[in-house]
Amino acid sequence: MNLTLQLLRINNPQVISMSSAFLHTMKNKSDIELVAMQAHYKRYTLDALNAYLLEVRKRNLDIKNENEIGKWVEELELQKFKDGLSIVPKLNWERASLKNEIIDTSKFLGLDVFVRTRINSVTPKPIISNPFTEFPTLCLLSKKELPKGLKSVTRDGKWLEIASEILIATIYNLQSSGIISIAAFQDKHSYFGLIQYYRESLSIKLINPNKTGDILSDLIISVLKTIDTSKQSNFDFANILTLLVTNIIGKEKIVFPEKEFIISILKIYSESNGFVDLSYSKSNLGLITNYSLDIAEKEKAALQTQYENSEHMKTVYLGASEIDIFIFCRMRKHISDEFFSHYKDTD
């Protein structure tokens, strides 16, 4: 079991308290019962398995698939961690430098109707040190299958998951390559000096305007080039994301916006690169269009190697810092909200 997972469990009192009942249960089981459990380990919860492993190791029992169970526990812990990322955490702004910079105002008859003040801002280091040399989207999809059959036309989250991964990986890649900077900020919104509230989010700025040769990367750069730099609020990630998605799938509401977004991007990759082919077939009496991304074997092997070397680009790992988790969660929430705004209700 890797050290990060061990430290996570040791330093997390909630995990310990949740496992106490299972520890008691496992202590009361006989050696024969514990050995028998190894054949059905996937039936048990994460807490039960953690208690099980502690007890069998304490008794030095001969569990033939202990390593296999340990790997399964790691998978469950990582999934639990990812599931927890659905809620954007609050940042501790006390450690950030105070700015108090007015970035947007609206006046009427000389009076301030609205004032937006940037209270805090943090620009972290890139989450990865080794960016993809090219094609982050294709690197991610070189090991993935696009949803097919009924899964391709149901809102089960598969298309949104893929769309989120390729967008976040591409943004991280641009950040790591020194093309953009990402900042987390805290702003105070004030109306007539009476109504006030605070908002936390992200901003993205273009540092190097040169194109990369990667389709999605260059589309993001093109959007950033159109930003009116006179207003800091224009750099908000939500604003940039809206411009990007609208440029690709339009303003009209559609049934499956994430799918349309991904297929539109992949069509451009296919048209621009000879080693990529986006093919399609029909299923369910011709009612469903299934898409397949075919990559030439030589290039596919190279893309998969890049994927393995830079896997942290597609997600936040267990040892990530508070600011990295905040940025990842905030990006994913904005992406989900943006595609939801494009949904066409079929009822």
Globular, elongated, flat, extended or rod-shaped: what is the shape? globular
Major beta-sheet overview: 4 strands, antiparallel
Q: Quick one: how many beta strands? A: 6
Strand order of the largest sheet: 1-2-3-4
Subunit arrangement of the protein? single chain
Q: Please give the alpha-carbon distance between the first and last residues.
A: 48 Å
Order of helices and strands: HHHHHEEHHEEHHHEEHH
- Mean pLDDT over all positions: 82
- Assign the structural class, choosing from mainly alpha, mainly beta, alpha/beta, alpha+beta, or little secondary structure: alpha+beta
Mind telling me the C-alpha Rg?
Answer: 24 Å
Please work out how many helical segments DSSP would assign: 12
Q: Helix coverage percent of residues?
A: 40-55%
Question: In percent, how much strand structure appears in the residues?
Answer: 15-25%
Poorly predicted ranges: 1-18
